[in-house]
Write a structure and sequence with these properties.
- This protein is an alpha+beta fold.
- 34% of the residues lie in helices and 19% in strands.
- The protein is built from eleven helices and 19 strands.
- Strands 12, 13, 14, 15, 16, 17, 18 and 19 form an eight-stranded antiparallel beta sheet that branches. A four-stranded antiparallel beta sheet has the order 2-3-4-9, with no helix packed on it. A four-stranded antiparallel beta sheet has the order 5-6-7-8, with no helix packed on it.
- A hairpin with a 2-residue loop joins strand 16 and strand 17.
- The longest helix has 44 residues.
- The two termini are 44 Å apart.
Length: 543
């Protein structure tokens, strides 16, 4: 069997994509009426058996040989390189032939309509006869235009096959010559063990293993800035208790109004400080009244002599309407990621929800849109059709991209944020082929803070670039929260089931497919962080 190296496979894909398509993929002309796929113009389609009389003024343009008798014969269970190219070539030639037949059909039918409506024809035809002929032609035209959608689907499928082949090459899922030879040939006894070991090593490098009970978080995951609360939730006299990496913390504002984060445990008798109060920039323990400043120093000990006591505190910063902490032991980074909505968007809702799932599983879910028409059938994806092929298109080295066929842009921003922009026309309805083609948009921010091994603190911010009046409607925030919880509940029952199986030893990433690309990249990024790799994959950040 002919093996496929990455460069050879790339040449095959490029050759197939560059085939001459004079009708199917040409620029729009006066005869074209249907919008194509991915910027191409695709024309009408006829039935399987073409019986159109081509003896007309355009016959030379449409007199193309039927490629079906040349359908490539495939042998074996795995395609050779030449066979893969032949299949791709046949698919596109067939779509080209069909499109030519369809254009001719539509044109001839329109000719007949003109003939029926010709003033000379009306002189010897009754009104009833003309109505009957027009009704028949209308029915034929309706059938022809119905076939147009079939033609578009076929062209889309052919292009998807080429895109899929290219994706396999880019992701290096095709074995190189040596690996293929090792699996297919019968090596000599002296080399068989070496070959098999090489194959196993290659496979193990590709396989993600996310199974077993959730282990304690690796300390290296802590060396990032984490958003933990919205600024609007922290007033001068209030506090926000949080758990982060299985440690309790509490946020409050100091005398200068700047936020601080200290251990949520009194140094005296381990009482939770969030049960107390905040006054004059100090948090007071409710047990014996000890008072702490934002740096963790105890500044007051009623009924006893003041001692030099200090509790642990974390670097805390306020930016873009959010409170950030650095829970790691390494010195904090000097830059904090910007989570501001895009220009022109207005924040309409900020929600904080505690969820009983490990934060990695929740991120896996948020980075996957292919599940929407199956899972969210009673909320935002109600009425969505199931596409024949879903892809996430992204640069070779990146954690952002866009979904096809959905008009949704998405990005994973380390260490735990998901940003998405959705093109919409009205609630529950998608519009256009990409976000750029849509007139109105919804922007979402999801922050999945790892509270503990089985609990996530979710921060959700929703922004719109339309309907600013909604921000001022009374109790609108209650409606947004209700809707968000409905969507989350649809996901939660599934993710909880995953977590249960994972804790019993099942691998939740045992069989990733093409639309799992962003989730896989998140997992590979996380593995690299935990392993201490200096240059993190898919990012320009070094640690």
């Amino acid at each position: 069997m002919l093996s496929l190296s990455a460069s050879n496979a790339m040449s095959i894909v490029a050759t197939a994509a560059a085939l001459s398509l004079p009708i199917s993929f040409c620029r729009s002309s006066k005869l074209s009426t249907k919008k194509g796929v991915r910027g191409f113009r695709v024309f009408a389609v006829l039935g399987e058996e073409s019986g159109v009389d081509k003896k007309n003024a355009w016959s030379s343009l449409f007199d193309v040989e039927d490629p079906r008798p040349k359908n490539p014969k495939l042998e074996g269970k795995v395609l050779k390189a030449a066979q893969a190219l032949e299949v791709a070539r046949f698919d596109i030639q067939y779509c080209d032939w069909r499109a030519r037949q369809d254009v001719l059909t539509i044109m001839l039918l329109h000719e007949k309509v003109v003939e029926v409506l010709n003033p000379l024809a009306r002189e010897y035809k009754s009104i009833g006869t003309m109505k009957k002929e027009l009704a028949e032609l209308q029915e034929e035209l309706g059938q022809a235009h119905k076939e147009v959608h079939i033609s578009e689907a076929r062209v889309s499928t052919a292009l998807d096959k080429l895109a899929f082949m290219e994706e396999l090459v880019n992701d290096k899922l095709l074995q190189d010559r040596n690996t293929t030879d090792a699996e297919q040939a019968s090596p000599s006894p002296s080399t068989s063990t070496q070959y098999l070991d090489a194959v196993k090593r290659r496979r193990s490098q590709k396989r993600l293993d996310v199974s077993g009970p959730v282990q304690k978080y690796h300390p290296r995951l802590k060396n990032f800035w984490y958003p933990v609360a919205f600024s609007t939730n922290l007033k001068d006299d209030t506090m926000v208790p949080i758990d982060c990496f299985e440690e309790p913390w509490v946020l409050f504002r100091g005398k200068d109004g700047k936020p601080g984060c200290v251990q949520n445990t009194c140094a005296h008798r381990a009482c939770p400080l969030d049960l107390g109060t905040v006054k004059d920039g100090r948090i007071t323990c409710p047990y014996h009244g000890w008072e702490y400043s934002t740096d963790g120093k105890c500044e007051k000990m009623p009924s006893t002599k003041l001692r030099n006591v200090k509790i642990k505190s974390l670097p805390c910063y306020e930016q873009d309407g959010m409170l950030w902490i650095w829970p790691g032991d390494d010195p904090p980074s000097t830059t904090i990621p910007s989570l501001q909505p895009p220009e022109g968007f207005l924040v309409h809702a900020e929600l904080v929800i505690e969820l009983p799932v490990e934060h990695g599983l929740l991120l896996d879910n948020l980075l996957d849109l292919a599940h929407a028409p199956f899972t969210h059938t009673s909320t935002f994806a109600k009425g969505w059709s199931v596409p024949s092929f879903v892809k996430f298109l992204t640069p070779a080295s990146g954690l952002q991209g866009y979904w096809d066929p959905y008009p949704i842009d998405m990005e994973f921003r380390p260490p735990c944020m998901v940003l998405s922009t959705i093109g919409i026309s009205k609630p529950g309805k998608l519009e256009g082929q990409s976000t750029q083609q849509c007139s109105t948009h919804l922007h979402q921010l999801h922050v999945c803070l790892p509270s503990s091994r089985n609990k996530t603190r979710l921060l959700y911010r929703m922004s719109l670039d339309f309907a600013p009046v909604l921000k001022h409607v009374p109790f609108m925030h209650v409606l947004w929260r209700h809707f968000a919880e409905q969507v989350l509940n649809e996901d939660l029952r599934l993710v909880l089931g995953q977590q249960e199986r994972m804790n019993c030893g099942e691998n939740v990433w045992s069989c990733p497919v093409t639309y799992d690309k962003l989730g896989v990249r998140y997992r590979l990024w996380r593995e690299a962080v935990e392993q201490g790799i200096k240059q993190l994959p898919f990012t320009t950040k070094s640690v």
